[in-house]
């Protein structure tokens, strides 16, 4: 027997232990080993019942995700057939679940006649999160076990349920309390089943999973989620599979599930989401940092500046139970900041997301102060004052004076040079950039900016902390705007310039939202504030002076007091919550275009797509070449988690690979020709992109 299975006999019970660390992913070798062990147990006349369990931290995390997109995914024995074989076992099978039973792991448990679980276990079907659907009987057996409504919730949310919830739903038969031996309990259950001559398979509790539901149930279900699912294949097809479970026999349902599964498995969307899954894990593997790198304890945090970002940043720590001190210059600003935080929590209470008690506990973890002496003993300080190098440097001089040795000093700057900030301290190795995104308590992304002298300890500690506060951390080197905002520049530049050339803001944004972006870039500027963009430009007029065209319109909007949503007017007009096209902006673009000698014309959606996206991709490739981003997957994570790029397109780098690097390069070269002086100025394919195409590479990587 292979080392992937630990096969033992305990009297009349065969114990099959899945032993493929770290998470017992059911790749072909484990599937084959499990099939072999199962047949051995069935053939052995001494064996009257079989327990399947997982060694290590998981029962099983499901199919081996890395096999999808290759023939290995369905190589014999394929999971669906294997589980059908298990489900037809002549002897009782008991799944003993500890740790996680996810996807194909839970489907394995569903194929067993009986399920028993430790109290700490979690069970779920997260396949739709990676663009798949449960494809080894999950969409058929789960509705028959717990009913269509509960099954849909588990399948379409992708959220795992706790063992206690699973017991209440009837998903498991018994819960083994903490401290009791799961395997011993499962073996005892097996013996009892044998003693009682219990059937290997039981009748389904919900033989007609949709019984009692209104006829329009599935249609209404889809209609209620149409917006959320826009453009996405997996949830729609997963629902189809559950519908099939409600319409015919198990065999027919399993056949439908297989067809639907193969459709999603071969889709570009699933490839993109699987890419994201692995990118998230890769992003945590940072050069110079490993599990042996010492971490510093972070038990108390301080945030400097209680404005838009400071307040949100403080909430992250309070939400994770970490006390945080908020320091401001003036009492009024502090009061305003604290009141704003309370208001945010209040609205969570109103939406039922938080209890009034939780609100008070969180507020009690946030202390305001005007005195640096009060933060002398904290383990981490995050500065979030105005975006001005001199102001930030002054703050860091003070922090250097007052903070204890070993404290981590972080800046939330979005554009400034972290090394220049670190340089004013006597401890640049303790300085790091922690770039949160607005609203900081909501957005998942945290760009961790590694300065020239940032120590591995500081980096490792902040990466762990990011995970603790529920952020997706991506490490960036130091440059203007880091990964995200630096790429935003060329992307936004094209959007602005296209409006001068003849597109409307709504047309530009429409192309981007059609692609799946959460928001068009011009709407995003309206949301963030036209004034904010203006101030960033003010700080670097010299650097952008060689082209006076593209930012003219935004400068003009700023001058007219059209600062975006906050003033009710920007690239659009706002009527309540509605965004409305505004002819005044078009008129303004016409005047400016004529002043700049730009001939306005009809712009195609394709041109908008190509110019915005290709320039975004071009800059990303350059960031990789410069080493600002360690991997192209890191860039994708930044754009998915910080800029609303659709995860099911995999991020801009993965999207470029799907489009074809040659097409991107040719597009850039075409616009370089077509757009005259402007084209020659900006449409410059970066060397790495040229090298990749010349070498026939299809993946974006350093060369
Ligand atoms: N396939 C392949 N590799 C997997 C995997 C899987 N299903 N699940 C985890 N891994 C790998 C990770 O890539 C990582 O590898 P690395 O160390 O080389 O980076 C390692 O296992 C550990 O994973 P995590 O770092 O994520 O460990 P955590 O302890 O933080 O999380 C987990 C564990 C909750 C199990 C998490 O890994 C997870 O959510 N896994 C994916 C679960 C999933 O989506 N299952 C469905 C698979 S599709 C399926 O089953 C189809 C079926 O219906 C036919
Ligand atoms: P803000 O203007 O809302 O808040 C800044 C706060 O800092 C104000 O309350 C001000 O009183 C306080 N402050 C100024 N100088 C101070 C000092 N010396 N000591 C203590 N407090 C001081 O600004 P916002 O938007 O919160 O930005 C803060 C930082 O976060 C900037 O560096 C900005 O670039 C960055 N950032 C902003 C994002 C955004 O979307 N607003 C996104 C990501 C980063």
Task: Summarize this structure briefly.
The chain has 703 residues and is of the alpha/beta class.
Keywords:
single chain, 703 residues, alpha/beta, 2-enoyl-CoA Hydratase, Chain A, domain 1, Rossmann fold, N-(1-d-carboxylethyl)-l-norvaline Dehydrogenase, domain 2, 3 domains, 8-stranded mixed sheet, 6-stranded mixed sheet, 20 strands, binds 3-hydroxybutanoyl-coenzyme A, binds 1,4-dihydronicotinamide adenine dinucleotide, lyase, NAD+ binding, oxidoreductase
- Strand order within the widest sheet? 13-12-11-14-15-16-17-18
Just name the CATH architecture of the largest domain: Alpha-Beta Complex
| Bound small-molecule species | 3-hydroxybutanoyl-coenzyme A, 1,4-dihydronicotinamide adenine dinucleotide
Helix content: 40-55%
CATH topology of the largest domain: 2-enoyl-CoA Hydratase, Chain A, domain 1
Backbone shape: globular
Based on secondary structure, the structural category is: alpha/beta
Distance between the termini: 43 Å
Number of helices: 30
Largest sheet: 8 strands, mixed
Got a strand count? Answer: 20
Radius of gyration based on Cα positions: 28 Å
What's the CATH first level of the largest domain? Alpha Beta
Mean pLDDT across residues: 96
Can you say what the CATH homologous superfamily of the largest domain is?
2-enoyl-CoA Hydratase, Chain A, domain 1
Strand content: 5-15%
Pathway: Lipid metabolism; fatty acid beta-oxidation
Subcellular location: Peroxisome
Pfam family, one: 3HCDH_N
Protein name: 3-hydroxyacyl-CoA dehydrogenase
């Amino acid at each position: 027997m292979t080392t992937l299975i630990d096969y033992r006999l305990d009297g009349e019970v065969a114990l099959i232990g899945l032993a493929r660390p770290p998470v017992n992913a059911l790749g072909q070798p484990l599937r084959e080993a499990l099939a072999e062990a199962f047949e051995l147990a069935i053939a052995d006349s001494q064996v009257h019942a079989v327990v399947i369990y997982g060694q290590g931290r998981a029962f099983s995390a499901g199919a081996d995700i890395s096999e999808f997109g290759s023939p290995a995914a369905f190589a014999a024995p394929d999971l669906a057939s294997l589980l059908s074989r298990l489900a037809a076992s002549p002897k009782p099978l008991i799944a003993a679940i500890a740790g996680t039973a996810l996807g194909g792991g839970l489907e394995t448990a569903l194929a067993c006649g009986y399920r028993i679980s430790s109290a700490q276990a979690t069970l779920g079907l997260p396949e739709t999160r990676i663009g798949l659907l449960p494809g080894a009987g999950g969409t058929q057996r789960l509705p028959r076990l717990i009913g269509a409504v509960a099954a849909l919730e588990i399948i379409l949310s992708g959220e795992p349920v706790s063992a206690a919830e699973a017991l209440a739903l009837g998903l498991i038969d018994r819960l083994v309390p903490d401290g009791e031996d799961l395997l011993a309990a499962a073996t005892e259950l097996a013996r009892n089943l044998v003693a009682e001559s219990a059937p290997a398979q039981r009748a389904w509790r919900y033989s007609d999973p949709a019984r009692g539901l209104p006829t329009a149930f599935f249609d209404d279900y889809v209609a209620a989620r149409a917006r959320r699912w826009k453009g996405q294949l997996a949830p729609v097809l997963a629902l189809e599979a559950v519908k099939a479970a409600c319409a015919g026999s198990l065999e027919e349902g399993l056949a439908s599930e297989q067809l639907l599964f193969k459709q999603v498995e071969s889709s570009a969307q699933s490839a993109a989401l699987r890419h994201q899954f692995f990118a998230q894990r890769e992003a945590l593997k940072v050069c110079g940092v490993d599990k042996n790198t010492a971490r510093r304890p972070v038990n108390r945090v301080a945030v400097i500046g209680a404005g838009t970002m400071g307040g949100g940043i403080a909430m992250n720590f309070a939400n994770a139970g970490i006390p945080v001190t908020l320091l401001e210059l003036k009492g009024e600003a502090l009061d305003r900041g604290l009141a704003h935080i309370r208001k945010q929590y209040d609205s969570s209470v109103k939406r039922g997301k938080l209890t009034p008690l939780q609100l008070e506990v969180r507020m009690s973890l946030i202390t305001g102060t005007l005195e640096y002496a009060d933060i002398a003993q904290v383990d981490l300080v995050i500065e979030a004052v105005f975006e001005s190098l001199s102001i930030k440097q002054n703050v860091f001089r003070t922090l250097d004076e007052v903070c204890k040795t070993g404290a981590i000093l972080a800046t939330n700057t979005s554009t400034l040079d972290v090394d220049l900030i670190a340089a004013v301290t006597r401890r640049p190795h303790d300085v790091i950039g922690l770039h949160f995104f607005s609203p900081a308590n909501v957005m998942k992304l945290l760009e961790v900016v590694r300065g020239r002298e940032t120590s591995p300890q500081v980096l490792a500690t902040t990466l762990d902390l990011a995970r603790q506060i529920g952020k997706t951390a991506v490490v960036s080197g130091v440059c203007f705007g880091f990964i995200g905002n630096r790429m935003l520049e060329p992307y936004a530049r094209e959007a602005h310039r296209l409006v001068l050339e003849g597109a409307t803001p709504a047309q530009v944004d429409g192309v981007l939202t059609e692609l799946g972006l959460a928001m068009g870039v011009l709407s995003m500027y309206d949301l963030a504030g036209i004034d904010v963009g203006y101030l960033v430009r003010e700080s670097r007029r010299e650097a952008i002076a060689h082209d006076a065209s593209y930012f003219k319109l935004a400068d003009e909007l700023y001058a007219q007091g059209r600062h975006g949503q906050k003033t009710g007017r920007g690239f659009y007009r706002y009527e309540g919550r509605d965004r409305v096209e505004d002819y005044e902006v078009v008129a303004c673009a016409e005047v400016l275009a004529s002043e700049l000698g730009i001939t306005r014309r009809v712009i195609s959606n394709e041109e908008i797509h190509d110019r915005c996206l290709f320039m975004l991709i071009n800059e990303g490739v350059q960031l990789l070449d410069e080493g600002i981003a360690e991997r192209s997957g890191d860039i994708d994570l930044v754009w998915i988690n910080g800029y609303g790029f659709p995860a099911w397109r995999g991020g801009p780098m993965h999207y470029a690979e799907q489009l074809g690097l040659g097409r991107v390069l040719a597009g850039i070269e075409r616009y370089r020709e077509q757009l005259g002086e402007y084209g020659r100025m900006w449409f410059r394919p970066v060397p790495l992109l040229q090298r990749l195409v010349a070498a026939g590479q299809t993946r974006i990587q350093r060369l």
